[in-house]
Every structure is written in C-alpha cells, then in structure tokens.
Amino acid sequence: MLTIDANTPPSPPKKQKFYQSLYVQVILAIIIGILLGYFFPDFGASLKPLGEAFIKLVKMIIAPVIFLTVVTGIAGMNDMKSVGRVAGKAMLYFITFSTLALIIGLVVANIIEPGAGLNIDPATLKSEKVSEYVSKAKDSSLIGFFMNIIPTTILSPLTEGNILQVLFVSVLFGVALASVGERGKPITDLLQVAAAPMFKVVSILMKVAPLGALGAMAFTIGKYGLSSISNLMMLILTFYITSLLFILIILGAVARYNGFSIVKMIRYIKDELWLVLGTSSSEAALPNLMQKMQAAGCEKSVVGLVVPTGYSFNLDGTNIYMTMAALFIAQATNTDLTLGQQITLLLVAMLSSKGAAGVTGAGFITLAATLSVVPSLPVEGMALILGIDRFMSECRALTNIIGNACATIVVARWENALDKEKLDLAMSGKLVVKTEENH
C-alpha cells in the first residue's frame, strides 16, 4: 500500500487504529448529535455554535490554501496557454452537467409529482424569511456577479474570503510570476515552502471536525425535529433518490468513459463526504478535497483551477433541487404550468444559478429569482420548504462535492494532466493520502 502526502514525497504507511480515522470520528459524532437533538432538543439546538465555529475555522483557511495551490501550480506551468485551456474545458463541463441536472430535476418532478394533493392556498403562506430571500434575489444579477469577481484591492480577497475573488487574484499573480521567468523563482519557492505549514494548519483544524459535525447535527434535529419532515417526506425522498441516480448513472457514465469508477471515487473521498454530511457545508471539505485530488494524480494547476471554480459554477445538487422545488410549489398550490413556462423556468435557472454563485443561501436565492419569472407561480410557496431545507442541504452539498471531484479528474484527463498510475492506486484503495486524519 502506498502512502502519499499531497505536498511531500511518498513515505511508508503508518498503521492507524480505526477510531483515529476522521470519517469514523465524524460518523460517531453525527450519531451522537442526532441522539442529543432528538432526546434533548433544547440542549441540541444550543450546540449550534459548535457547528458554526468549525465552519468559520475552515473558511478562515480556504483563501490562503487556494492562493498557494493556484499560484504555485500556474507558476510551474511551461505553457501559459494551458491555463486558459483548462479554464475553458472546466466551464464547458460545468455548463453541460449543471444544465443536465436542471433538466433531470424538472423531468422527475413532472413524473413523481411530489407536491400533488397538498391543495395549499398561497394566501396562507406568509414568511418574513421568504421576503428576505426574495429581496436578495432582486439584488443578484449576472452582471453584478461578474462585477463582484473583481476585488477592491489585491489583498482584500484573502481577508474577505470570496472564493472567486481569491481565484481571480491567484490566477493573475500565478501568470505574472510565470511570465517573469527566473526572476520569479525565489517567490515561487517561498510560496511552495509556505504551503507545507498552511496545510498543517488545515490538519490541526480538522482535529475538531467531529465536534463541528456533532454541533451542527444536534442543532438541526433539536431545532426542526424529525417530525418536521414527515409531511414533506415525498419531496425529500424524491430529491435524494434523484441525486443518487444522477451520481450513479450520469456521473457514473462520465467516469467510466474517462477510465475510473464513480463508486470507487466516492469511497476514496469518503472522509470529505462524511464531513459534508455532518456540517451541511461543502466548503468544510474544500482544502481536503484539493489535497486528495492532487494526490490521486491530478496536476496541481488543474486542481487549483477546477475545484474552487466548481464550488461556484458546478452545483449539480443545487440545480436538481431548484427545478424540483419550483415544480413542487406549483403542484402543492395547484398552479398549472404550461410547457413553455417550465422551459422559461429552466432557462432562467441556468442564468440565476450563476448569478448567485458563492452567495450564502444561494439555493434559496436562485429559487426566488427563478420563481419570480412566472407571475402565476407564488413565490410565497417557498415557505413550504423552509422547514425542511436543512434536511435537503446535506444532499445538495454531497452531490455538489462529488460532482466537483468527478469534474477535476475528467478535466485533468482531457488536459493530459493526470497520472493514471496514481489514479488507479487511489481508486483501488491502495493509496492512503496523508491529509488531516493521518498527520
């Protein structure tokens, strides 16, 4: 069995007790969190700060991790044209599969009709929270989104944590560093050295990941209760099953065509998936995912460009949710939508999903923007799914991160930037990556 650190040469594997594994610790934490939230709801709800604190800790480190990975990756590339080529191929992949996810959500909702029979009067649906999302949706536009990619200063992205702004500055600086040749080598070397302690910080933060997962899960169950999902169980089940089929069939076919198994890839990133499940945030696993993809044979430059960009543009789970939720609201309120109106919803969702990318609560904001284009569809209907959103966010986040891992390997293969031998080792379970739980 080969052990690889994303930043250091291979070293012999170290025997690890099962309870020392991050994913085992997170699974136990999730179980404890569910039990605490169910039997002691008030206490469970009070543990919310644990989950929030962990997410803040991870967000604190995301910007420097992306900056160091992207800059050193691009600076080490001989051909600057390949930067634009990687970005172009990644965007082509993102647009294709994001649109496919929207279509699948629409088709399944029409077949299953999870909202049929609820017969809810839209006039009875009033929520201040919905009004808040609607106002945010009005503020978000595609032009505003692209303008927001440009930071106030070259250093502000590192303090504000906007992923796309960090990526924008990192690509610029990486290209500039590569352009000056030997004169830039001391800075490149310095940044490569700085990457080691930065990833060590990530490993230290991951020690408290189980606490974060416990707090987030205890809060969700304690605040909303398992009983809150019973009335809308059909929508939840439909969404989870659709997402699972999208991963196994659509992404599975893409993976097989590109020489790897989607199931084996999921097993390879299981630590990150459990972390996402526990915290309901795909950002919690971003630093680890970048290390894992690099260790599996994807070149650093490709990982640095595809993974952070995918977190804003490749949201398969969010897109399935959007069209499915829109049709659920229409069915629940007995609002008949013509084929033309459904196609309009689809087209608007394609644009709005990019316009609110990277924004907190993006799923709900884009849903509000999408619903508003069909006057007969009551935006107030969003109040129906506010209560179960926490139970659906886990599935959205899991589908998103699996989609981004798949995209990274595929784009790396398209770009001939994939070490097939390392990938095969990773997919066969013979590669143990020395990330957080192994340090």
TrEMBL record:
The membrane-spanning stretches of this chain are: 21-40, 60-78, 90-112, 163-180, 201-221, 233-257
| Membrane-topology annotation of the record | Multi-pass membrane protein
Compartment(s) of residence: Cell membrane
- Keyword Cell membrane on entry: yes
List UniProt keywords, sorted A-Z.
Cell membrane, Membrane, Symport, Transmembrane, Transmembrane helix, Transport
Quote the PROSITE patterns the UniProt record gives.
Answer: NA_DICARBOXYL_SYMP_1 (PS00713), NA_DICARBOXYL_SYMP_2 (PS00714)
Chaperone keyword on record? no
Which top-level group of life is the source organism from? Bacteria
Q: Which InterPro entries match?
A: C4_dicarb_transport, Na-dicarboxylate_symporter, Na-dicarboxylate_symporter_CS, Na:dicarbo_symporter_sf
Q: What does this protein do?
A: Responsible for the transport of dicarboxylates such as succinate, fumarate, and malate across the membrane.
Describe the family membership recorded for this protein in Swiss-Prot or TrEMBL.
Answer: Belongs to the dicarboxylate/amino acid:cation symporter (DAACS) (TC 2.A.23) family.
Question: HAMAP family, per this entry?
Answer: C4_dicarb_transport
Official protein name in the record: C4-dicarboxylate transport protein
Name the gene that codes for it: dctA
